[in-house]
Design a protein that fits this description.
Elements: E1 6-7, H1 10-18, E2 24-29, H2 34-49, E3 55-60, H3 66-70, E4 78-83, E5 86-92, H4 97-113
Parallel strand pairs: 1-3, 2-3
Antiparallel strand pairs: 2-4, 4-5
Length: about 110
């Protein structure tokens, strides 16, 4: 079981995210992005807490821009909430931990009841 965010390349995106049997939060980020740095520790906590139920995938848009382009990501951080290969929710910008946790729990409710 994965207890920390996985770093995903353009070539691995389809297998790691779109074909994942678990719901995935994809965090499009870059090392120079301040708000991305604020969200990172929260996503690390969530990856640990939801281990076995949810995957947190991080895509460095400086190194791997292909999928960010395909999904029309214009600002970072952008988090895509993906289940069964489909984007269920898109969150643009950093959120405080409580709000991000609320979004994640709603996402998990939606994807586990279907």
């Amino acid at each position: 079981m994965v207890e920390e965010p996985i770093h995903v390349t353009d070539s691995a995106f389809e297998k790691s995210v779109l074909q994942s049997s678990l719901p995935v939060i994809v965090d499009f980020w870059a090392p120079w992005c301040g708000p991305c740095k604020m969200v990172a520790p929260i996503l690390e906590k969530l990856a640990k807490e939801y281990s076995g139920k949810l995957v947190v995938a991080k895509v460095n848009t400086d190194e791997y821009p292909e999928w960010a382009g395909k999904y029309g990501v214009q600002g970072i951080p952008t988090m895509l909430f993906v289940s069964g290969g489909k984007v269920v929710h898109r969150q643009v910008g950093a959120l405080p931990e409580k709000m991000l946790r609320d979004v994640v729990s709603q996402f998990m409710e939606v994807v586990t009841t279907n």
